[in-house]
Amino acid sequence: MKQILRTTIVRAALLSAALLVTTLTALTAIPQSQAGSTAPVAETASGRDVAASGRPAFTGAEGLTVQEAPPIPKDVTDDRRRQRNYPEQPPVIPHSVAGYQLDLNANKCLTCHSREFTGDSQAPMVSVTHFQDRDGQVLGAVSPRRYFCMQCHVPQTEAQPRVQNTFKDMDSVIRQGSGTSGGGNN
Ligand code: HEC
Ligand code: HEC
Fold first, then answer.
1. pTM of the model
2. What is the CATH architecture assignment of 73-160?
3. Which of 19, 93, 158, 173 has the most CB atoms around its CB within 10 Å?
4. Which helix (H) or strand (E) holds 129?
5. Is residue 165 over pLDDT 70?
């Protein structure tokens, strides 16, 4: 009985020693491999930036410069209707739409823009195309395909475009063309 107990104790001791060795090897191995991968990054300025940001680094963060996100730009809410770039453009929204319910149960936009309420609201009425189904048939109410206004009409913000827009509207194209070869009639 004593003999068995002793061998068990010895075995247990051996086992835990082996475990200890494995753990130690693993523990020392991790910092080594980490040091190997982060050392060159820490030397670059951007590497310092990532570290200085105090955020946990993520894979691929090497070489990135951390920039604070700019504040969310303000909505344009000056109530001035904008010129359209072409006749079929859905006009942009010049007023606040914050908190306007627009779902299956309620359409806040139509409480001002539908024909029957424009007298009170002085909002421009949705045009006749909003009453047409896809076959051009004019319906008695706003067509389901024009129900979710913000599919097409969007508010504007004061954000500056990242890329300059070189769009020219039809009038300037025609004006430019008439000065040269006489338009498209040749
Ligand atoms: C409280 C009334 C009211 C509500 C609600 C409202 N609008 Fe307006 N909307 C107006 C008025 C008035 C104008 C005219 C310009 C101005 O005063 O802002 C306008 C202008 C517009 C214009 C510009 C039209 C043009 O010809 O340039 C669009 C587009 C528009 N609204 C879309 C919407 C959408 C989409 C919603 C819902 C998310 C909405 N509006 C909700 C009152 C309202
Ligand atoms: C599928 C796209 C689409 C949807 C959805 C839509 N519109 Fe329009 N809207 C347009 C286009 C395109 C124009 C300009 C040409 C026209 O009148 O059809 C326009 C024009 C307007 C105008 C200006 C009308 C005028 O005569 O100056 C108002 C106001 C407007 N929409 C409000 C709304 C409201 C409110 C809704 C939601 C009930 C809505 N729109 C849904 C595309 C859309």
1. 0.74
2. Orthogonal Bundle (1.10)
3. 93
4. none
5. yes
